Amino acid sequence: MDGQETRTNQGQAWADWADAFAGRLATRAADAEAHRTLPPETIKEALDAGFFAMLAPTGVGGQGSSYSAFLDVVRRLSQGCASSGWTLSFLALHAWMLCKFGPEAQAEFFRDGKMPLAPAPLAPTGKAVPVDGGFVVSGRWEWATGINHADWVLVNGLNSETMVPVFCAMPIGSVEIEDVWHVSGMVATGSQAVVVRDLFVPEHMTLPATAMAAGASPGEPLHPGSTLSYPLRASLTLVAATPALGAAEAALDYFRERMMTKLQAYSGGARQGEMQTTHLRLGEAIAEVSAARLTWEEACRVLERIGPLGAEAPLDKQVWLRLAAAQIVRLANSAVNTLSAASGASASFLSAPLQRQLRDLQVMRGHVMFDWDRTAVLAGKVELGFPTTPADLL
User: Is the whole model's pTM more than 0.90, yes or no?
Assistant: First the structure.
């Protein structure tokens, strides 16, 4: 039965594995950032533990874990490295998305017994021209998180006849990768651009975006009792917000430990942790991180409650999950900004994790799903009964 609580392939509790792995991710964070990709040993450890299989149904060799269990692991991993937590979680989520395809496609995805790694830039910025037996796909997509570790690529193109987006899966060797991810934060995600030039994709390797969304995919009847019916956008936004919470929790721990020993400049040797202004800033950050954590916990409960309803999940609850995810990222950013401002110039050295957590969160908040103004307007609009549009990304 899917939706159960599971353990790693080695029989370890997921929380214990994640806490230990987070420590190793922290030691690799600078190297991952320098090379703009996760190290091979990070991917191997995640594969060996079965992390990428957590959400996938048991029928394809997945673990069929609950979303709550999965998200807790992501939060813990992100305390070690937000870029790593983000990339690993997206690859696991995308393996879950591949399970929404029909049986013929699933037979190809899972034929070698390995959980497929498939970056999935979701904006429909390319086109899919219907031809006999499938589509001819062309276009350019941003941003393909984890592309350096991919077996497949999942892109979203507009059907040139119906103008309905359609997801198209293709082997990694059939696409071009543009090295464009030169950014200030979330560097190790390796979120490059993908280019496809007039590639034929068989119909069975495609899925209309409406079927991918919730409750209507051909993969769902193949895996009864799984989480495949959960609304895609609501699930995705909560997965994406979770690394922000993990990073903020880690920043709080770093600041607390640092203030116990840091001497305040020009103060005659007084410890900064003894100063009232330090107490104030730390208290403010604790309040914001606590609020983010409480929002995250409630969002996990709401997702588990409405997820099985699929396409019938109440619109207001789906929008609330979007708002909650944006609020988590907003609060995490505010808390880490406060901590960074109070940490002194030495916290900006590249050897200090706080500077990376700050930069990662600043880039993370730029994700379209975390646009605060856009999300708050959507929530207010729905609350007052006004209709939504495709641009609302529900």
Answer: yes
